[in-house]
Amino acid sequence: MADKDGLKVAKDYRVEVPFANQGDFHVKGSNHLDWGMKKHLSNIFDPKSGNTVMFAFDHGYFMGSTAGLERLDLLIPQLLPHVDVLMGTRGALRTCVSPDCRKAIALRTSSGSSMLNDDLSHEVIAVDIEDAIRMNADCMAVQTFVGADGQLSSLDNLSRSINAGLRYSIPTMGVIAVGKQMERTDRFFKLATRLVAELGANIIKTYYCENFEEVVSACPVPIVVAGGKKLPEDEALTLAYRSISEGARGLDMGRNIFQSEHPAAMAEAIRKIVHEGFNDREAYEFYQDACHR
Known about the structure:
Layout: H1 35-44, E1 52-56, H2 60-63, H3 72-79, E2 85-88, H4 90-96, E3 104-108, E4 110-111, E5 124-125, H5 129-134, E6 139-145, H6 151-168, E7 172-177, H7 186-198, E8 203-206, H8 212-218, E9 223-226, H9 233-245, E10 250-253, H10 255-258, H11 263-276, H12 280-291
Parallel strand pairs: 1-2, 1-10, 2-3, 3-6, 6-7, 7-8, 8-9, 9-10
Antiparallel strand pairs: 4-5
């Protein structure tokens, strides 16, 4: 067992040096995976840009009916042209998303808590691998608490999902959760993202933070940035731009899309940053123009 008191502070992140084991596949850390895994990851990450726009609408599994998500059946068709991946629960996907949508699916497979419970860190695997296969999921999304009371059980959930996914060539996305007692610092995210990647997750969903380039550099698989709480549209687009320009391979936006006054325009503006190289100012101007079409 390593003596933590004797460990040196990590500092040699070499952020200017590209990932060394890229090979000829466009998804970081996936060069040696089998064909099936690569096919699912190619459904998620665009082969040309290497990036992805995910739309997260899984909030109902712990929040119930959420402002902006009251009618998924009406909202999702508006957004489909502008996103690459739908991240939701099996219930929402089966009832509100047409199977001919041809979008990648990030299936929420962990669950067990609600907003009525102050501690959301104790989750279970709610969807087994067989149903993930039936859903044709391109990845399984597992909530992962590092430094919280439920850390052991959440890492067990993650590991069991990874093991099952490897048997059937379905990637796992570790969703880094930040509890009330944890600070959103680069020190925490460097620990959490690396830990989850070392356990075998193929994608990490986490939050943007200070020194984000170092977080990305130290993580051997692609990082997708969560939108988090609702921000004014210009601030959300600045978050998106900074995330992509500092190494994220995608955005997984929820409230900053579905709680926008113009969700489709917002999703389209985010897409301009992720896939077309727009900066935040250009994307916000695009958003304003799109609102008046």
